[in-house]
Design brief:
Layout lengths: L1 E7 L17 H5 L2 H4 L2 E7 L3 E8 L2 E8 L4 H16 L6 E7 L11 E2 L2 H12 L5 E5 L4 E6 L5 E7 L7 H11 L6 H6 L12 H13 L4 H20 L8 E4 L6 H11 L3 E2 L7 H16 L20
Parallel strand pairs: 2-5, 5-6, 7-10, 10-11
Antiparallel strand pairs: 1-4, 2-3, 3-4, 7-8, 8-9
Length: 314
């Protein structure tokens, strides 16, 4: 389980102030007394990772952990860890939104909202100038075009094949016997990236393993895989009308060489959040905050604050 330190909704790259001052001016960070008196939480259960975020003004407390098969139990675990980190009781959360593939497995969520809307809102809170999001998840790739208010205008998704996703890179790393975190620096050492002809994850893994045994340089094979993944991602995203600024999120955004390949092929600079896994959870919390303040007093439906598991699978 990975915990992130208290941080701001903006990345260090986009704001020169220190984290101690929340990377924002006091006026924009504290906003107003009404909103600062409440805490809002978002939990994003993805195919491979589960993320929880609690926001308070401009401050974020967060926890990230692997999803695994027990989504119902893990949702409670990451939420409990986030609450502990923030020094809060569950009852102090004013509103909680769940998102991601496993959002229905969060019995204590006040609302479930799609990951498209949550990623859009989360990215907008970090990069207000963003208009296109490329989210590279564990088992899918999403392209989302958003407006100036962080609302989705259009989106495309590839969730029928693992090629172009984090799972594809994980399988290839296993086939080559290297750590997933080492893929980027290995690819960067390539002098002549190999052309990988197989698009299927299984066949591509077999191809690179075979060519490695034939003497092909490891760095060239890994660089070739990155090129193949980047091209597959852009084939999906090209169905959108891509507009600047472009933000890359998800686990794939942590792979520097893949980000570089995408930027080169897009012909534009790309932005990456300080923690690219958290945009969905942050967006869920932000949407919860929006709903809370928009609802007439006493008319917002909320779930009991307990850790019970959903029972409709039993």
């Amino acid at each position: 389980m990975t915990e992130s330190k208290v941080s701001c909704l903006q990345s260090e790259a986009s704001c020169p102030q220190s984290e101690a001052s929340c990377l924002q001016s006091e006026a924009s960070c504290l906003q107003n007394e009404a909103s600062f008196a409440h805490y809002f939480a978002g939990i994003d259960i993805g195919s491979t990772m589960t993320k929880a975020a609690i926001i308070h003004g401009g401050i974020v407390w967060s926890v990230i952990g692997p999803t695994g098969p027990e989504q119902r139990k893990l949702a409670g675990k990451v939420m409990q860890e986030a609450l502990k980190k923030a020094g809060l009781s569950f009852e102090e959360i004013s509103y909680l939104v769940a998102t991601g593939y496993g959002r229905i497995n969060v019995p204590f969520a006040d609302k479930q909202i799609t990951e498209i809307s949550c990623h859009a809102r989360g990215v907008n809170s970090i990069f207000p100038q963003a208009r296109t999001i490329i989210d590279i998840g564990g088992q899918d790739v999403k392209g989302i075009r958003i407006d100036a208010k962080g609302k989705p205008v259009d989106f495309v998704m590839n969730d029928k094949c693992a090629a172009g996703t984090g799972r594809f890179l994980e399988v290839i790393a296993g086939a080559l016997g290297i750590e997933l975190d080492d893929l980027s620096k290995t690819a960067a050492a390539s002098k002549k990236p190999a052309r990988i002809s197989s698009l299927c994850t299984v066949f591509a893994a077999q191809e690179v393993a075979s060519r490695l045994s034939e003497g092909a340089p490891l760095s060239d094979l890994v660089a070739g895989i990155h090129q193949s993944v980047a091209e597959r991602i852009l084939r999906t995203v090209s169905r959108l009308s891509v507009e600047k600024e472009i933000v890359i999120t998800g686990g794939g955004a942590k792979n520097g060489h893949l980000v570089k390949m995408l930027a080169e092929r897009l012909g534009a600079a790309v932005l990456v959040p300080q923690e690219p896994l958290l945009t969905g959870a942050i967006g869920a919390a932000m949407l919860g905050k929006d709903r809370f303040h928009a609802a007439p007093a006493g008319q917002l439906q909320k779930r009991p604050r307990n850790w019970g598991e959903v029972t409709f699978f039993n």
